Amino acid sequence: FKYGEMVLILYSYIRGLIKLKWKMMTGIVILIYNNCIDTINCIKSVLKYSQTNTIKILIVDNGSEDIIYMKLADEFNKQNTIDIIDHLKIWNSNKSIKLSLISYIKNNNNLGYAQGNNIGGTIFAKDPSIDSIMILNNDTLFVNDLITPLNSALSSIKEAFIVTPILLEKRWNK
Fold it and tell me: How far does Cα 10 stand from its chain's mean position?
């Protein structure tokens, strides 16, 4: 091994040990397209049931109408700031970034589910504070802390690369 490789391996090993002892920082990618109400409810539930010092939310807008950002900003700028990110500058840069609690990316057109989420994952990969990435549909509502047990499972199962919760559907009785 070269010296740089050994340092990287040691850093990865130590970072792995730290993950087991301290809280992991999770980047949550929420892909949206012209659906503001579900997105607002989703983010509110994530904030309600998560420790905000262990999450960062990245809204990836897949070409929605401009009014969608305004509605999101009106809702969340009361407590938090939504940072607008130029993902093309970040994408083409080798520099690391520090994202805020809630960030927003606007694609000029609908790039599809996979590419939209890949953009979010790529942006989170450039934030060194992020230990894990969650892909979250914008119509999902948290009813308890979901992130802590998922990160616990991810940290405790050495071979795990992906973990997922059991999905429940609420039945409405009318």
Answer: 27
User: What six digits make up the tokens of 160?
Assistant: 């795990």
Tell me if 50 sits within 8 A of 25, measured CB to CB: no
> What is the arithmetic mean of pLDDT over 121-145?
91
pLDDT at 83: 78
Say how many C-beta atoms besides its own lie within 10 A of residue 120's C-beta. 25
CA terminus-to-terminus distance, the chain: 66
Do the beta carbons of residue 91 and residue 23 sit within 8 Å?
A: no
Q: For 13, list phi and psi in degrees, rounded to 5.
A: -65, -50
Q: Residues near 39 by Cβ (< 8 Å), separated by ≥ 6?
A: 30, 32, 59, 68, 72, 138
